[in-house]
Specification:
heterodimer; A: Glutamine Phosphoribosylpyrophosphate, subunit 1, domain 1; 5-stranded antiparallel beta sheet; about 35% helix; about 35% strand; B: alpha+beta; Glutamine Phosphoribosylpyrophosphate, subunit 1, domain 1; 6 helices
Chain lengths: ~210, ~250
């Protein structure tokens, strides 16, 4: 089952997601990127119905770009989160999008922020959060190990511990993950954690460290 | 209600669409705008009519970005321009969403021109009172492009063109002086064309340069003044050379 998680550290936010694309008993691909870079300083990790996920996240991304061209300044993370929630809410009682979203962003005035947006248009501003069956393990780990103002190394270590737990304890667990980070220098891919697939090495960082 | 299904743009007995021609008049009264295509650069220049003292000049942007690789300048009714530019921006993103590819310059020009044409053939509306100069780089061939549209909805590609006030003089200048240029030479050519019809110098023109890698960049006033100074120096040197030659013989 798909997992998306996110954590806020000191002036940065991390959003991670598994990279499996599954349909019943078949794994279509193990390197599907589910964390979309919305604009220079925003990340949107999404899980749920594959068609809706791609359609909805691209729709949000293009509308963010349109706003930027119209107004020469980008939308803030909070505004983008509220816009996203609004779109989900409008479609909810007609033709709902089955997409759960962790939205992370960095604004110069506010710093890093993380938003939890579920498929029925719930919106919460959070420091740590997760979606999917993996959340049963991740949230407990985060409760125990999270503290405010973590460094990048500490935050990624926490994410790695979550990934390890998901791999270990979830039946039909996704093996490969992508970790993306957003800070004052922008949104970018930080790392991949791969155990299966064409390019999978033995991921020494995971097996040794934790 | 019945009034609004009458076309405003109708043919005259001798085959003219007067509303479209009047719209072209509105364009001729608008500020001067020039566009020049180089080998690796495209330049847009627009006349900035003197700003009233109390107006915040930063809120009056004459050159608009339609997408990361496309920009537009226009002459004519600025309010109409806002509407067209907005529709074009939406179309650029819509195109990216549906086909996962950025628009070509020709596509968006055809779209804008199509929109302008629609308003010459609909009931109860008047044509858009502006001509646009659209520049950009083709995302597939990396070639720079310059297009012009007008209120009738026609469009075509140009190496260099001008519209708005005194566009004929500017176009004549460009025809006489155009050659394939790149980088700074393209910018200088555009500014020289504008200076033919715009009073004095840097404060009265807005110039934007688009390159393949850096997108659209508005030139600062200081930079424009530098170019103007260079151009004036070149002109002075040319004058001196002309005066010098006959005396020698």
């Amino acid at each position: 089952m798909e997992c998306v998680l996110g954590v806020v550290g000191r002036d940065f936010a991390v959003v991670a997601a598994d990279t499996s694309a599954v349909q019943s008993i078949l794994v279509h691909k193990t390197d599907e990127d589910k964390v979309m870079v919305l604009d220079s300083h925003k990340l949107m990790g999404a899980s749920g119905e594959p068609g809706d996920r791609v359609q909805f996240t691209e729709f949000i991304q293009k509308n963010l770009h349109l706003y930027q061209f119209r107004n020469t300044i980008p939308l803030s993370t909070a505004a983008a989160a509220n816009f996203t929630r609004g779109e989900l809410a409008t479609a909810l009682r007609k033709n709902p999008y089955m997409v759960n979203i962790i939205l992370g962003g960095y604004d110069k005035d506010v710093g890093a922020s993380l938003y939890y947006i579920d498929y029925i248009a719930t919106l919460h501003k959070i420091d740590k959060g997760a979606f999917g069956y993996g959340s049963y393990f991740c949230l407990s780990l985060m409760d125990k190990l999270y503290h405010p103002d973590m460094t990048v190394e500490e935050a990624v270590d926490l994410v790695d511990k979550c990934i390890k737990e998901i791999r270990l304890r979830l039946v039909v667990a996704p093996q490969n993950f992508v970790i993306k980070i957003v800070d004052k220098d922008g949104a970018r891919e930080y790392a991949r954690r791969e155990l299966v697939g064409d390019n999978a090495p033995v991921d020494a960082a995971i097996t040794v460290a934790a | 209600m019945a009034r609004y299904d009458r076309a405003i743009t109708v043919f005259s007995p001798d085959g003219h669409l007067f509303q479209v021609e009047y719209a072209l008049e509105a364009v001729r009264k608008g500020n001067a705008a020039v566009g020049v295509r180089g080998t690796d650069t495209v330049v847009l220049g627009v006349e900035k009519k003197s700003t009233p003292k109390l107006q915040d000049s930063r809120s009056v942007r004459k050159i608009a970005c339609l997408d990361t690789h496309i920009a537009l300048a226009c002459a004519g009714l600025k309010a109409d321009a806002r509407v067209l530019i907005n529709r074009a921006r939406v179309e650029c993103q819509s195109h990216r969403l549906t086909v996962e590819d950025p628009v070509t310059v020709e596509y968006i020009t055809r779209y804008i021109a199509g929109l302008q044409q629609k308003y010459t053939q609909s009931g109860g509306v008047r044509p858009f009172g502006l001509s646009t100069l659209i520049v950009g780089f083709d995302p597939y061939t990396d070639k720079p492009a310059l297009y012009q549209t007008d209120p009738s909805g026609t469009f075509s590609a140009w190496k260099a063109n001008a519209t708005g006030r005194n566009s004929n003089s500017m176009r004549e200048f460009l025809e006489k002086n155009y050659k394939e240029t790149s980088g700074k030479e393209t910018i200088k050519l555009a500014i020289r064309a504008l200076l033919e019809v715009v009073e004095s110098g840097g404060k009265n023109i807005e110039v934007a340069v688009m390159t393949k890698n850096d997108g659209l960049r508005e030139l600062e006033e200081a930079e424009i003044d530098e170019y103007v100074a260079e151009i004036d120096a070149e002109k002075a040197a040319a004058e001196a050379a002309k005066k010098g030659a006959p005396k020698d013989t």
